[in-house]
Amino acid sequence: MESIKLMNMCKIVNHQTGKVLVQERVKSWQGIAFPGGKIKPGESIVLSVKREILEETGLKLNKIKICGIKDWYDKKTNERNLIILFISDDYEGKLLSETPEGKVYWIDEEELKNKKLADDFEKLLKVFNDDKVNEMIYIDNENKNENQRWDLHFY
After folding, report:
1. pTM here?
2. N or C: which end of the chain has fewer CB within 10 A?
3. What is the rounded distance in angstroms from the CA atom of residue 68 to the CA atom of residue 128?
């Protein structure tokens, strides 16, 4: 059986301004992305995203909706990484300006193309924004050299 690492990420939209909440990540996967994190063993997936958002932004999510997944399976380590993607415009609380994970702020989504985004986050936006796309997956093509090993697909 494969080992699985479960993670989450949430696009939070301000329903009044249309801006999205981003995190300027300084730890792993550096650059701008939506907030999220790891799902603890045995933890509810829905409660995990609510916990991560509260910890990283200060906001309490009320209603959330799954909008897709990002995943990849590493044949060398026999490990799948699965990020469950959520979206919400229903939250309350006072936004933190910064946490140990990085700065947190609202931005027009169009402005993201002019920012230093986390690796492949620009591609991941397709899953968040296109109702016809449910999954972004990297297929491990171990027969290719290390720099071209991963083939990207959207489903």
Report:
1. 0.93
2. N
3. 7
Can you tell me the distance from the alpha carbon of 99 to that of 104, in angstroms, rounded to the nearest whole number?
8
Nearest to 141 by CA among 151, 152, 154, 127: 151
Contacts of residue 126, defined as CB under 8 A and 6 or more positions apart, other chains included, come to: 133, 136, 154
What would the two tokens of residue 39 be? 């799902």
Say how far apart CA 119 and CA 113 lie, in whole Å. 13
What pLDDT, in 10s, does the model give residues 9-41? 999 999 999 999 999 999 888 999 999 999 999
Residue 104 has a pLDDT of 97
Residues 16, 9: Cα–Cα separation, whole Å: 22
Q: Which candidate, 99, 121, 5, places its Cα nearest to that of 53?
A: 99
Q: 117 to each of 22, 89, 132, how far by Cα in Å?
A: 10, 22, 24
Distance CA 121, CA 31 (A): 9
Rounded-to-10 torsion of CA 111, 113, 119, 120: 110
